[in-house]
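step: validate -> pass
step: tokenize input -> pass
step: predict -> running
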Amino acid sequence: TDDRTFDDASTAIVEGAMAVVRDPDASLPARVNAMLLVGDLRGKDGKDGTVWAGAAAPLSAVAPDTYFDTGGRVAAMAGLARHADAARRAGGDKLNDFAKAARGAVLAVAVQPADPLRPQASDWLSGRALALVTSVIKTSPKEFAAALVKLMNDPARSLDVRVRAAAALGATATAKSEIKAAAAVGTITELAVAVVEADEGILRDRRYEQGLAGGNSGSGTPASSASKMMSMQITAPGMAGGPAAPVVPQLVPDQALRRTAWRLAALADAILDEEGKTGVAALLSGEDQENSKAYADLYREQALAIDAARTDDSLLAAVAMIRPEEELPVAADAPAVKPAATAPESDPFGGK
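step: predict -> pass
step: emit ->
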């Protein structure tokens, strides 16, 4: 119950855990679990969601350091994310203290080059760090902004990392960041096309698989035997029999569509948020800003539509709008989409 005693005990635990993390003779599970322990230490009240602030420094030391195993760095970044959540909830001095302790690590990991041997782990680390950027800085320094622009334009990195880089840039870019705002808007529009085309590719692959399986669904879409079973008559107790309306199989997974909605909403805000205060287009003026705002409004509108319906047709409608030079087959009898009240803010695959 004594503050100093509690801090001394927590410090002893961290020192013991970090000795294991740095021990090359310790097993990998032991090193990873030791790093997780550091990030899991709670504040003195012991409540869920609290963290021991002193752990931010060792977590920040390990996360960007390629000397450590990737598993240990992932554990450290998970701990920093937990600290960031707690700091955002607390606000004030605690958020400032976290920013001071973690700023260097977060910014370094965010734009760190990918490890060709572990590209998925590299993308996870960068994506997690990019999601924490606004917790450690309010405006992007020139060098960091340039690194974010480079990351946005890197086709070798995953789509999620590039979208998160755009979101971080849009939220923190100012005139002092010295970015080419018009070019950044152009990159973001290319990312939006890539986002909807990624799900269009899923739809195309599923249709191809169904075509190989043979058969055809009621909508003209090739269907597998499992899909045919979905179109069979379904009669509930007490209801009159008779043929039920055919059920058109949903080919793009619901979670993928939720992710696409979030990506489009994030790209919309990266160009210009709804209040017109942040986003790379806020650095433009006149017709350039108006044209950029039109893109932001379009992406936000399509994000809402996909999030509300989460159907193949809502995806195809988005592709047709975002890539307008190509008409796509949207079912004529597809139900009208009623947009949600607000854009999807939470990334279903982690982060905010």
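step: describe -> Residues 20 and 26 are 6 Å apart (CA to CA).
step: cleanup -> pass
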